[in-house]
Amino acid sequence: MKAIIANSYGGPEVLTYTDQPDPKVGPDSFLIRVKAAGVNPVDWKILAGYLDPMMYGHFPLIPGWDVAGVVEAVGADATEYAVGDEVIGYVRKDEVQHGTFAELVAAPVRTLAPKPASLNWRQAAGLPLAGLTAYQALDRVGVTFGETVLVHAAAGGVGSLAVQIAVARGARVIGTASERNHEFLRSLGAEPVTYGDGLAARVRELAPEGIDAAVDFVGGGVVDVSQELLKDRGRVASIADGEVKAKGGHMVWVRPDTADLTALGTLADAGKLTVPVASAFPLSEAAEAFRESMTGRTRGKIVLDVS
């Protein structure tokens, strides 16, 4: 199979498009013919070695955790899907080596869910990691109908999905973004505010009585700002602030979860959730996709077209 590999930690320049052996398929796994794969900031952070203190990485390393594709073979005790089924997955394993930036990937059943019929392959590939991150962060702070939630980095890949999920739950959403993304946020159902100095005051203008919950997808001190506004200072979750637990909030490290991923697909097929795709690259140009991701300025998801 064709795949993107790295033989050492480094930047996008260490990525190579090459031939690799087809994956072995475990008893509770499925072999997926990859149609598209989502690119996430964690991918270039893994490549840079940032996650090495917490996860074993083995070389040659195929990056990628997001996938949308078709079942090509089933493991000895894998019964949930059949050959030909269309699936999506957040294929994070306990160690990093056999990722989704390849024509084939072996995916444990716990990482998969049916592909939403309403999403094309690119959109479907961009949903799992970002969608699960948003979904699980909102769950962690208990966002429910009628509440006001503040979403930081609301125009990004995770934030734009969090806005839609919260709106689908009947919440009022205030989202931070640059002014150029304000109309985009309005189209998703959020009330936009500009991030940066004075953010708390701008949010207070929209919500004088404060907010019920906040989710942080950017870091940089926004947990502290959120807690100035929260009625309950503990109802803040972050994927980017390493001190959030010490501040009384919640750290979220997204987990593979078939039920959550299926729920996201149900929202998509009900017309309540779409996946904005910022750009798409052929698999062979994964290094360019990484470089775009590293700018931190994309609106929506970056994906790789594989087959």
From TrEMBL:
Span of domain Enoyl reductase (ER): 10-304
**Known EC number:** 2.3.1.41
Which CDD domains does the annotation name?
Answer: MDR_like_2
Pfam families in the cross-refs? ADH_N (PF08240), ADH_zinc_N_2 (PF13602)
Quick one: signal sequence residues? Answer: none
Q: Which Gene3D superfamilies match?
A: Medium-chain alcohol dehydrogenases, catalytic domain, NAD(P)-binding Rossmann-like Domain
Keyword annotations: Acyltransferase, Transferase
Transmembrane regions: none
EC top class, as a word = transferase
Q: What is this protein called?
A: NADP-dependent oxidoreductase
Which GO-annotated molecular functions does the record name?
3-oxoacyl-[acyl-carrier-protein] synthase activity; oxidoreductase activity
Q: Which PANTHER family match?
A: ZINC-TYPE ALCOHOL DEHYDROGENASE-LIKE PROTEIN C16A3.02C
Domain of life, source organism? Bacteria
